[in-house]
Amino acid sequence: SLKTLTTLNLSSNHIGDVGAERLADALRQNTTLITLGIERNRIEDAGAQHLAHGLQYNTVIRILDSSTSCF
Q1: pLDDT score, position 71
Q2: Exposed end of the chain (fewer CB within 10 Å): N or C?
Q3: For residue 67, what pLDDT band results from cuts at 50, 70 and 90?
Q4: Structural domains in the chain (count)
Q5: What is residue 62's DSSP assignment?
Q6: What residues contact 69, with CB distance under 8 A and at least 6 apart?
Q7: Which phi and psi angles does 8 have, rounded to 5°?
Q8: Is residue 43 part of a domain?
Q9: Which residues cross the membrane (predicted)?
Q10: Looking at the domain assignment, is residue 53 inside a domain?
Q11: Which of these, 20, 23, 56, lies nearest to 41 by C-alpha position?
């Protein structure tokens, strides 16, 4: 069950802007994820904006690794 997921590493999965938008949708509703790794995913400005908006509603994430994601 995703209801207890605390760590998610999507590094090097090339999720791009579309994947970032879907991830942002999930982040708005998530209440358990503490660590998120999205480095090296070819996320551009549009995807970064979606993620930023999704993270505004998520008060749980404490560690976000987005290094070399092309923002």
Answers
A1: 55
A2: N
A3: confident
A4: 1
A5: -
A6: 38, 39, 40, 41, 42, 43, 48
A7: -135, 120
A8: yes
A9: none
A10: yes
A11: 20
CA dihedral angle for residue 47, residue 69, residue 38, residue 36, rounded to 10 degrees: -90
* Furthest C-alpha separation in the chain: 31
Residue span of the structural domain in which 44 resides: 2-65
The answer as to whether 17 is a domain residue is yes
**Domain CATH for 30:** 3.80.10.10
Place of tokens 């930023």: 52
User: How far is Cα 16 from Cα 44, in angstroms, rounded to an integer?
Assistant: 7
71 domain-assigned: no
Q: Which residues contact 48 (CB under 8 A, 6 or more apart)?
A: 20, 69, 71
